[in-house]
Design a protein that fits this description.
By secondary structure, this protein is an alpha/beta fold. The protein contains 13 helices and 10 strands. The radius of gyration is 19 Å and the shape is globular.
């Protein structure tokens, strides 16, 4: 098989951001790729925009794990890069992934570090938080895979929503495959970040996190506490250098923690009622 990267994108009403992602793929320094877009019945111009970039478009759902798995099965590439619609690739991201994989047959997946951008103070706080996670293996999740490895492990667990990004790389790593990382970044468009909206997502993810924690109980301490993650203590000097952003970040984490805790309580109560 030729060296070939399949960019798998899942969408649902992403007209505001999908063009920027597709443009960043088209302008990559590495050109041997395809774009596979799996849309979940968008009612806006998402699909129309994607067609102008030559994407292969499929309709599938209901959750992103199912969409991603479907997209990889349809892909022709040797490697599968899993992307969200609100991301932008830096110019050499695909080239770095291919180079890394080709140099080491033992690699099953690659982490691509992320930076956030967008509008408003709370978005700056989110971007500040993401800086702590660069190089932190318990937080960064691999999103570029050897397609054969991806399929061997059954792709993303479709019973998990939220932590599925962590579950698949953990299963791959526990089986003895190496997880590498590249230096090029993915830029994550937070748009105008809202702590309340983020808390609602944490509620939803926490309410469905039991399957993940049963599979990987060792990650409960490393990832479970949104407010007191070990990496915050490890990189405490960043708070000294940026106290306002640090305080804002902890406000965000506090609001998210309330959402996550509510989701856990909801999950427990719902289970008892059944």
């Amino acid at each position: 098989m030729k060296i070939y990267v399949s960019c798998i994108i899942t969408t649902k009403n992403e007209r505001e951001v999908i063009g920027a992602l597709l443009s960043s793929i088209k302008t990559q320094s590495y050109k041997n790729f395809e774009i596979v877009l799996v849309d979940n019945d968008s009612t806006d111009e998402t699909v129309k925009i994607a067609k102008t970039f030559g994407a292969k478009i499929f309709t599938y759902g209901p959750e992103r794990s199912a969409q991603r798995n479907f997209g990889v099965k349809k892909a022709k590439g040797k490697y599968a890069l899993i992307l969200d619609a609100d991301m932008v690739l830096t110019k050499n991201a695909l080239a770095d992934c291919v180079e890394k994989f080709e140099k080491d047959d033992g690699l099953g997946a690659l982490v691509i570090p992320e930076k956030s951008f967008g509008e408003g103070f709370w978005t700056k706080c989110r971007a500040f938080e993401r800086e702590f996670y660069v190089g932190e293996p318990s937080i960064e999740a691999a999103r570029c895979f050897r397609k054969d490895i991806f399929l061997k492990f059954g792709g993303y667990d479709e019973n998990i929503t939220g932590p599925e990004d962590y579950d698949l790389p953990l299963r791959i790593k526990k089986a003895g495959n190496k997880i590498g990382r590249i230096k090029s970044y993915i830029l994550h468009n937070e748009r105008r970040f809202s702590p309340i909206k983020s808390a609602k997502k944490k509620f939803y993810y926490a309410a469905h996190a039991q399957v993940y924690l049963r599979k990987h109980p060792e990650m409960a301490i490393k990832q479970g506490s949104l407010l007191f993650r070990p990496v915050f203590l490890k990189k405490w000097k960043k708070f000294v250098n940026h106290p306002i952003l640090g305080m804002g970040m902890f406000v965000v984490k506090g609001v998210e923690s309330i959402g996550a805790l509510s989701g856990i309580i909801y999950s427990v109560v719902s289970k008892e009622r059944k």
